[in-house]
């Protein structure tokens, strides 16, 4: 049963092109891929005469609807900014308590990791936490190397602690390779899966509570570090998502105004362009360029929403419950 759960968790992690498209890829490049696909499909349909795509009435109908749709970017942008600013604003007491909570959290992590002053950089901060997790697991391993506990319990402890060490070291290696980028740090921590390990450590600790109280106490330290890792990861998620939404609102303005301008110019000039003596392929190209240009804000919006939604989906699996499906 445990193997099935672990396998299902692994199946939920996106990798390869899907991970690049949904999470790690530059959102501008992802938008470009989407727009290139739309443009290629439009050109193929138009040049191959699979549909009439250059008729002025059809292009006018599309551009009129596009202008109306692009104007809705204003309330969308305002709504996105409200989401971001709702967390930034507050009374002086609220801001003070928030800052105090962060300081208390840092001091608690410093105490549990044996660090004088924790790093202000997210990547180094998580490296310190994960190193402490691995060290605590090694301490339990060393204790059981000389223990006279029964073979089943010893093997169980060895298997769980080795899994904890391996996952922590793998994640630490990725953090070191990715540098200090806050987004890359968070995307790396998305793949750090400790929910199953948290359950296993608590189960073993319960079995050892009477047999070896000291070992149970050391296992308790691992679970406490897991809680700190999850809390830091959720806080970093909040920061990353806020930054992504703030960037999205800015890009919607940057691309929305030119898109409305292009659509408006197209409405007033496309009938005249279609009346010129142009080859069919060139006319398809002109119509396709106008259409793709007006879809840039939608592509940008889709690229960022995909990232934020995927982050929300993946972080939903961390905590007291482990989803066994994508429902």
UniProtKB/TrEMBL annotation:
<feature type="transmembrane region" description="Helical">
    <location>
        <begin position="60"/>
        <end position="80"/>
    </location>
</feature>
<keyword id="KW-0812">Transmembrane</keyword>
<feature type="transmembrane region" description="Helical">
    <location>
        <begin position="29"/>
        <end position="48"/>
    </location>
</feature>
<dbReference type="InterPro" id="IPR058278">
    <property type="entry name" value="DUF7972"/>
</dbReference>
<feature type="transmembrane region" description="Helical">
    <location>
        <begin position="251"/>
        <end position="270"/>
    </location>
</feature>
<protein>
    <recommendedName>
        <fullName>DUF4239 domain-containing protein</fullName>
    </recommendedName>
</protein>
<dbReference type="Pfam" id="PF25927">
    <property type="entry name" value="DUF7972"/>
</dbReference>
<keyword id="KW-1133">Transmembrane helix</keyword>
<feature type="transmembrane region" description="Helical">
    <location>
        <begin position="282"/>
        <end position="306"/>
    </location>
</feature>
<keyword id="KW-0472">Membrane</keyword>
């Amino acid at each position: 049963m445990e193997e099935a759960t672990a396998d299902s968790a692994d199946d939920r992690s996106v990798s390869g092109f899907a991970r690049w498209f949904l999470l790690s890829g530059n959102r501008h490049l992802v938008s470009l891929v989407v727009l290139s696909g739309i443009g290629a499909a439009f050109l193929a349909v138009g040049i191959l005469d699979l549909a009439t795509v250059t008729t002025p009435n059809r292009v006018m109908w599309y551009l009129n609807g596009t202008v109306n749709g692009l104007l809705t970017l204003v309330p969308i942008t305002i709504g996105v900014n409200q989401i971001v600013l709702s967390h930034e604003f507050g009374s002086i007491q609220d801001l003070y308590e928030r800052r105090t909570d962060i300081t208390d959290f840092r001091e608690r992590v410093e105490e549990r990791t044996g660090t004088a002053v924790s790093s202000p950089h997210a990547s180094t901060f998580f490296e310190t936490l994960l190193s402490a997790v691995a060290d605590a697991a090694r301490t339990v391993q060393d204790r059981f190397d000389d223990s006279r506990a029964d073979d089943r319990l010893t093997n169980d402890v060895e298997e769980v602690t080795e899994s904890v060490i391996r996952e922590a070291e793998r994640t630490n290696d990725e953090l070191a390779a990715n540098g200090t980028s806050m987004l890359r740090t968070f995307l790396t921590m998305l793949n750090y899966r400790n929910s199953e390990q948290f359950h296993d450590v608590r189960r073993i600790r319960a079995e050892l509570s009477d047999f070896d109280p000291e070992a149970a106490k050391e296992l308790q330290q691992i679970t406490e570090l897991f809680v700190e890792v999850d809390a830091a990861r959720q806080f970093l998620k909040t920061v990353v998502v806020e930054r992504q939404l703030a960037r999205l609102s800015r890009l919607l303005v940057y691309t929305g105004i030119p898109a409305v301008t292009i659509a408006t110019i197209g409405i007033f000039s496309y009938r005249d362009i279609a009346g010129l003596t142009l080859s069919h392929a060139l006319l398809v190209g002109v119509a396709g360029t106008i259409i793709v240009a007006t879809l840039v804000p939608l592509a940008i919006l889709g690229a960022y929403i995909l990232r934020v939604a995927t982050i929300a989906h993946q972080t939903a699996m961390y905590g007291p419950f482990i989803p066994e499906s994508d429902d």
